[in-house]
Design brief:
This protein is of the alpha/beta class and 161 residues long. The chain contains seven helices and five strands. Strands 2-1-3-4-5 form a five-stranded parallel β-sheet. This is SGNH hydrolase-type esterase domain-containing protein.
Length: 161
């Protein structure tokens, strides 16, 4: 049974081939927001009692909506939900899309700074993706805005898998 569960939006598509299926399970919910994924976290971990580590990757779909205060509230609920779990917890921050301009980058930077503080006050380790991917178009594949970015060699060292 897998010991690591990676759950997220479309950003986790395409990374399962880089993970040992005996050790890691990857579940993608394309289009999910923080609110959507929060409702699924407890049942996903309950259904897989052998999980020792959870990596949640979500937020890019929310940043695109430009509602920062709602997003912070939703992330707080997610962090509280994750805090109920008895395992290693990771929150992987949103990856900036190659098409995002300065306004969305600024919004994502503000959210990341807030997430760093919020995660450090909880039992969740934050994985900051902002500066790894910002304007590094070569890390993104043709098939997806996010899929190959998370499966790039630079990303594999930061995941708990």
């Amino acid at each position: 049974m897998p010991k690591v569960l990676i759950v997220g939006d479309e950003a986790v598509n395409g990374i399962s081939h880089m993970c040992n299926p005996k050790k890691t399970r990857v579940i993608s919910f394309p289009g999910d927001t923080v609110f959507d994924l929060t409702r699924k976290v407890l049942s996903l971990t309950t259904d897989q009692p052998d999980i020792e580590s959870l990596d949640v990757h979500v937020g890019a779909n929310d940043v695109a909506k430009q509602k920062s205060e709602i997003l912070k509230k939703d992330f707080n609920i997610l962090l509280n939900t994750m805090g109920k779990l008895k395992m290693k917890l990771f929150l992987s921050g949103p990856i900036p899309s190659p098409q995002w301009g300065d306004e969305k980058h600024s919004r994502l930077d503000m959210i990341n700074k807030w997430l760093i503080k919020s995660c450090s006050a909880s039992s969740v380790t934050f994985i900051d993706n902002l500066w790894i991917y910002w304007q590094r178009f070569h890390l993104f594949g043709r098939a997806s805005l996010y899929g190959s970015a998370l499966s790039s060699p630079r990303r594999t060292g930061t995941a708990p898998a």
